[in-house]
Amino acid sequence: MEPDKAVCCPAAEPSPPVPTEPEEANAALARLAKAIAHPARVAIIRLLVRREGCIVGDIVDELPLAQSTISQHLKQLKSAGLIRGDVDGPRVCYCVEPGTVALLKALVAGL
Known about the structure:
By secondary structure, the chain is of the alpha+beta class.
């Protein structure tokens, strides 16, 4: 991380429980899988996992997509709970939500 860029995301939320009922687990997995069902969203998640926080401009610099396109993908990832966006002055800092990523991994492992 560059020295002039502070970490802008607070501590992670606790991991949500893995559903024990098959129907609930299926629905949770389908919702999360839909959120990462685009290569750009997978690339955004990979980028955010490597970093402690990114503003949209940092993501735009890394991916060959327009800012508006990245913003739409961020909206979908945030809606699914895989990332969060925290206001840091005039910008929004995005970071991965490790608890939800852990839930996704557990649901996939349960297949």
